[in-house]
Amino acid sequence: MKKVYFASLFFLLFLFSSTAAFAATAVHNSKAKVMKQGVLGAKAYNVYYKEAGDKKFTHSVRRLPHNFNDFTINSLKKGVNYSYVISALNENGKEFWFSSPKSLAVK
User: Is the whole model's pTM more than 0.85, yes or no?
Assistant: First the structure.
């Protein structure tokens, strides 16, 4: 019974510690500010973004430091919808967590 209890506790701690909140807000000057609330164990982050109709993520910002609070993406097209995801990197530079895709409309 103890093994099940500890395994369940570990799973709950992992689930709780690996959740993170990310949000992007459009700015009228073709910029978007991405803000985050960290992923446990992340040493850096990558931001991937694309126009909503594209199949693959065509742009990226790589290796943002783990302690960044926000980052501004410049040169976005006005009137275009974008999709973005953020990944967390471990100490070896390997991606181990991805956010769900988020939408962003540039006005």
Answer: no
